[in-house]
Amino acid sequence: MIDIQKIRADFPILRQKVYGKPLAYLDNGATTQKPQTVIDTLMRMYSRQNANIHRGVHYLSEQATEAYESARRTLRDFLNAALSQEIIFTAGATAGINTVAFSYGERFVGAGDEIIVSVMEHHSNIVPWQMMCNRKNARLKVIPITAGGELIMDEYRKLLSPKTRLVAITHVSNTLGTINPVKEIIRLAHDAGAHVLIDGAQSVQHIPIDVQEMDCDFFVFSGHKLYGPTGIGVLYGRRELLEELPPCQGGGDMVDCVRFEQTTYNELPFKFEAGTANYIDAVGLESAVNYIRAIGIENIAAYEHELMNYTREELRKIDGIRLFGTAENRVGTFSFLLEGVHPYDTGMILDKMGIAVRTGTHCTQPLMQHYGVEGMVRASMALYNTREETDLLCDGIRKTGRMFFSRPA
Ligand code: PMP
Questions:
Q1: pLDDT tens string 23-40
Q2: Yes or no: domain 4-30+296-405 corresponds to CATH 3.90.1150.10
Q3: CATH number of 39-294: 3.40.720.10, 3.40.50.300, 3.30.70.120, 3.40.640.10?
């Protein structure tokens, strides 16, 4: 069970007021706040354990290296990856997808080959594939979605062919909250001889992840959406596959023997970690993962599910609201428009009430096109949110409506 008051006390930023009002932070899809333990870990690393890793024989360097490699083991366990070498630290989900798009493209993609994405992808899971397709003369295919925001699986089946090299799909939509049936998506892709990358940027913080059970080939996410620091993330890849891919960046640490005639590369995972790694934030991410594991990701999922259900019911009661994404299998991310009110106006008015929501396209312009809208307002929940905050949000939306039109309360 979750002790919500205790959890909220762990996050110092939540104590503050904005415009004299208690902060209701509902922009967790963009980034999450950090518990004190993560902040303390970063302080400790900088004040007591900082030295470049993998380089020195001196005490501090060994300490920092051990802390970094311990973080890798913790992340391996968190994702239930088989091996630590399969955990590559990146700058975030975007960096992980770009690494795969480049390296996988170099090794496996040729003219006429196809990559499959979906209409609901974040720009980070569209543009790197487009860039790769342009380089390789390959084609990008797009799985359509229903009006309610779910993948049309029959259309997906039709898109799969011997030309399909890779399917890149988000686990959870950052705009609609839909949880996609990734196991089935992966099984179908594998049956067709294709590999699969799962964008876990919006799933790791909400639902338990087991990459072996899921059977994905690649899985990426960002630490900052998982209560960890910015500038750090993870690319998981199956070892046999990673072994076959060329590195996408050259530099220190990723090499074995450097000669002007020819250079040989380091073993996994270092082959994909060129330059000084972000070891401090990797240790910060480990601390975030330990924090989550102490609460229990299953407990977090159950608490958030209950809050999602409550919020959905309350939002549905609001006069003039249009909710996007009606999938049953979903997380507490709600995008909406208030009839006749520009999303920026809604966002700005809610902000003045101390309620932080996201407005705009949410880095999913093709999805906005699909719905024929310029933008949306998004409220996205995390483990520290409460029913009281949902009530504040709904009151705020109603008040916004009344400010524009004199709707009955
Ligand atoms: N994919 C999804 C589904 C996301 O929500 C985001 C972040 N909004 C990203 C990828 C990119 O994450 P980052 O900007 O941290 O690299």
A1: 999 999 999 999 999 999
A2: yes
A3: 3.40.640.10
90 lines ligand 1 (CB under 6 A): no
Could you give the CA distance from residue 172 to residue 207 in angstroms, rounded to a whole number? 10
Cβ–ligand 1 distance for 170 under 6 Å, the answer yes
Residue 6 near residue 13, CB atoms below 8 Å? no
pLDDT of residue 1: 82
Q: Is 201 in the pocket of ligand 1 (CB under 6 A)?
A: yes
Mean pLDDT across the chain = 97
Which residue's CA is the nearest one to ligand 1's atom 12?
Answer: 93
pTM: 0.97
Give catalytic residue positions.
363
> Helix %, strand %, coil % for the chain, to 5?
45, 20, 35
172 CA → ligand 1 middle, Å: 11
22 CA to centre of ligand 1 in angstroms: 28
For the segment 362-366, the average pLDDT, to the nearest whole number, is: 97
Ligand 1 contact, 27 CB (< 6 A): no
**Cross-sheet strand order for the sheet of 376-380:** 321-324, 333-338, 376-380, 358-360
Token readout for 256 is: 């074995």
Where in the chain are the domains?
4-30+296-405, 39-294
Distance 270 CA to ligand 1 centre (A): 24
